[in-house]
Amino acid sequence: MSDSSETESPKDSPSSSLQDSGDGSLYLQKLKESGDPKSAALESLKELMSHKNLTMEQTNSLRDIARILEHSTHGDDFSLSEKYFVNTVKGRLTSDLDTQKYLLTFAEQQKAKTNRWVFSKVVNDVRFVRHSVERTASTEDIQHKIYAGPSMSDAVYEELQKIDSWNFDVFKVSTLCNGRPLQIIFHYILHARGFLKEFKIPTNVLENFMEAVETGYHNVPYHNNLHAADVLQSLHIFFQCGIKNMVPDLLQFAGYLAATVHDLGHRGLTNDFLISARDPAAIMYNDRSVNENVHLASAFRLLVQDELNILGGLTKEQFLLVRSQCIDMIFATDMAVHSALLNEFDAECDNNQMGGGSVFSNQTLLMKFVLHAADLSNLLCPLHVSQRWSILVLEEFFTQGDQQRICGQEISPLCDRHTVNISKCQVGFIDFIVRPTMMSLYQVLGDSMNDALANLEKSRLFWLSKQSMHEDVHAE
Questions:
Q1: Which residues does residue 146 pair with via DSSP β-bridges, in sequence order?
Q2: Collapsed DSSP state (helix, strand, coil) of residue 228
Q3: How far apart are the two ends of the chain, measured CA to CA in Å?
Q4: Rounded to an integer, what distance in angstroms lies between the CA atom of residue 32 and that of residue 284?
Q5: Which of 6, 47, 116, 250 has its CA 20 to 30 A from that of 335?
Q6: CA–CA distance, 397 with 2 (Å, rounded to integer)
Q7: Long-range CB contacts (< 8 A, 24+ apart) of 117-121?
């Protein structure tokens, strides 16, 4: 490196910028006194962005530090992720006047929850380095590079390369992303499919919405944000296997949204339990698909808020179509309609004389069935992953049964941890629910389903072996 490149000009150095800033805030003062201004500035940004609440002074400091660093990120001392981090903070605070006004208003009013949506992105959400660099022989492929901190970025990026495969491990991604996998996967897929641009979804609005959605999932054993992330990824696989060639982009986007919110607000209780207990939700929705109504209402309560409305770039007609598709698809996840949906889908396949790669004329029915299949798909994962899902769903059932036992109520089927044979239960679920569903989908997707069906058979043989050896696996 030449002498000129090694010598940092006073104009561009972080320390000189700080000396010229004239700001007396605590954060800027710490930077002035630091022997390593760059590192201190980055750490100050991370600390500020992690606050649930920001005072107006802290918000101003956030903007000033980002501005200072922006002038210093052109040299080799800054990594790609650090440059993106600085530009993300700077852009979020200054590029859009309406967004800036919104941020400052809520920072001043100390709205804790909203501030968490907006300002917690570095620690939990600023993971997306979305550079639009085309893949060429001379250009590094950074199109889907993830920033999640030095200790996580490579691991998350590596796992996301499997997102089109059943070998994708959503449990691993959740661990790497501090328990927030849904935001990562939804954003990653929409970006990879080009839907952020096509449907005019601002990044800050998407992040706000996904923070609200992920927070809206309850901490229950199975029907939580991790399950939603798993269903979303499974739906994506089905799309990649051929569904994307059968329906327009707008319906696919509606499918991704429906998968993301399809269990939003689930309390880990079945519809039958809620109806029997005369739960307020059952009263409100007249005992019809109670949970599914809750999920839909919860999602669209978020989407009517401007700062969370990822559908704001759609026309009125597009919005109505997306909403209608989400309603139809999420109602189709109610197991009470499983048999009717399966029969209707098989009849439509017969009418269309389906084969792998054929066109399916009833697109709404296809989307309903594909989301329903994705909701049942954890048994299509490798055995070590599918076993975890099997234990988690039964633990949620057993938790409901425990509650019923305490209240002196009749315990629902599959909900008594003292009597349910898990192995027998899993074999029956595969034979009577999952395998018929996937074989019906095979009529549409053909051999692209082979890996999934092979994994399903391995799961079946595993649980069958436990049953034949009079063994059982119990929830911990």
A1: 128
A2: helix
A3: 59
A4: 59
A5: 250
A6: 68
A7: 117/207, 117/208, 117/211, 117/212, 117/307, 117/308, 118/204, 118/208, 119/48, 119/49, 119/50, 119/51, 119/52, 119/54, 120/49, 120/50, 120/51, 120/52, 120/211, 121/49, 121/88, 121/92, 121/207
What is the value of pTM for the model shown? Answer: 0.70
Catalytic residue (one of 223, 262, 266, 372)? 223
Q: Which tens digits make up the pLDDT trace of 223-255? A: 999 999 999 999 999 999 999 999 999 999 999
Q: Which long-range contacts (CB under 8 A, 24 or more apart) does 277-280 make?
A: 277/409
The span from the CA of 298 to the CA of 295, in Å, is 5
Name the residue with tokens 């315990």. Answer: 411
CB 130 within 8 A of CB 92: no
- pLDDT for 19 beyond 50: no
62: CB partners within 8 A, 6+ apart:
45, 48, 49, 54, 89, 93
DSSP letter at 124 equals I
Q: Which residues of 13-32 are buried (b: 16+ CB within 10 A; e: fewer)?
A: bbbbbbeebebebebbebbb
Q: How many CB atoms lie within 10 A of CB 280?
A: 10
144 is an active site residue: no
